[in-house]
Amino acid sequence: MSTSTRSFAAQSATSPLASYTLERRTPTDSDVAIEILYCGVCHSDLHQARNEWHNSIYPVVPGHEIVGRVTSVGSFVTKFRQGDLVAVGCMVDSCRTCPQCLRGLEQYCDNDLTLTYNSPDKHTGLRTYGGYSEAVVVDEAFVLRVPETLDPAAAAPLLCAGITTYSPLKHWNVGPGQKVGIVGLGGLGHMGVKFAHAFGAEVVLFTTSPGKVEDGKRLGADQVVISKNADEMQKHARSFDFILDCVSAEHDINAYLNLLKVDGTLCLVGAPENPLPVAAFNLLMGRRQFAGSGIGGIKETQEMLDFCGEHNVTSDIEMIDIQQINEAYERLLKSDVKYRFVIDMASIKQ
Amino acid sequence: MSTSTRSFAAQSATSPLASYTLERRTPTDSDVAIEILYCGVCHSDLHQARNEWHNSIYPVVPGHEIVGRVTSVGSFVTKFRQGDLVAVGCMVDSCRTCPQCLRGLEQYCDNDLTLTYNSPDKHTGLRTYGGYSEAVVVDEAFVLRVPETLDPAAAAPLLCAGITTYSPLKHWNVGPGQKVGIVGLGGLGHMGVKFAHAFGAEVVLFTTSPGKVEDGKRLGADQVVISKNADEMQKHARSFDFILDCVSAEHDINAYLNLLKVDGTLCLVGAPENPLPVAAFNLLMGRRQFAGSGIGGIKETQEMLDFCGEHNVTSDIEMIDIQQINEAYERLLKSDVKYRFVIDMASIKQ
Known about the structure:
By secondary structure, chain A is α/β, with parallel strands linked by helices.
């Protein structure tokens, strides 16, 4: 038993995304069936559609920034009911018993994390299929509640770009009295600026693009530094409590390590393809730390959505129809989006 | 006014160390004059004698693991009196007013840290000269007390090798119930094993030398892993709370990052010459941290010496006369020492 569901899929690393009918499982007693209203477009979607991480199994239906309405719930479901505005992020299941899952860090599950797409699916024995589709069925433990006060389209990117920046800013206790750097103004970086500002920190945005200075300030940065300008960088030496590095392209980590105070942390959330050279003295001379962080756990993702509801934080988006997805990918490669594409999933019914 | 003092100095990057008479300042009211009994031989001594860090100004009198007896004290000195067993480590002064100095982290002083040798000397306008000499004059704020129960020769390496490993193990709260790795069994590593064991952690030593397995266990390691054996390494994946990396040679940091638990830290205390490539996913997939740490502050160095007095922790040493220093440097380059050379400074009077 399953339900035929319209989607857009890549059938190979070189084929454009195109219409594809997939089968969603019949909901179990603990499942929530969701009509997808909006799905954000993450750079990971493109990487996996094109097999750039060398682990794609086709067809790939991308999409892990999902907002929708509950259409039905299983008999054991207690947290949601039909009509609720809900969300699904990067994960749809985990082992739920390892130390990481028990700590609410399902994203680091020791055993078998099930990602929202291109991951082994325990129910079907096939792969999971993501949010570029009209509907999805997810265990209630991995469904989030979206505050009704938020614009549901602009809330979709919170599920990846949002939590990926919120979680490390929270983990490293960013707040008032602290000087915090955000490196890169893209999908992740623009959320990093918004959250760091909302948490009350002094926010400095680093960008290579002079054209982004005004936008950076509008989004909440107190200062914007053009990172190619060595003199301007040097003025900030040894002054940052925390720097969130949102850049996935190759870049010089040492230039940012030198801007940290003693005991400061530079946390990477982008994932550059090649290893980053780190000069030992930059760490030794100030007990500095170079860290990484991956998305966030389910409990923290809900906390983030609630915070966004209270403070009216959402992503700056450009809405597209699903039929524009291939064009959107090309623009994404040129960083030509302010700052996240979101698919209006009503378009899939055209 | 100054005091002629016998020492051993390098007069250039290529000349062997040889007898040299330097002038120590006449003690001020806050100074302690010390007859040097023993001085440990740190790899940094060799680096700076040979200008390998490109900042040496000659003559260079190395030595920053100094133990001696107080011969006189200035009129404002309250902590020491003639005859006390004392020590001097890597620093002899700092600004004392910046946030780092006020936190007891003088080693990260924002303004003008005065290292024990090859550093600008505020008193003379020349350079500081280190412990390869018969006497030294140091402000009491940078003099440490050595427990009389310790072997003073074996205590000398505590002033650099000891505090450099003690401080990060303390900072990252290493203790019972934790699995801790020590990478490399040399001057630093053998102290790391002793301290981690004394703090009650489960200690795993990583070494490239099968010949060091027995010694590792004798020094306190619960297990010794030959790091060239990939299968043996893989058995420890995702299992360490903390790893202290004491290796100064080029080595693969990623192999150790993969052994850390979620939220684990790999701390570097060796200083490899070239930048170390770090794969982003190794940090992202577990919120891991790659950190560095440099020696320790004065208060913590005293705490370390007191701990060593209570737990009878000292370095494993090989005693030499000052006339053997050039030969000792050659052996140091071959890691042919178990595990620290200490100069018996009585030999300088021969």
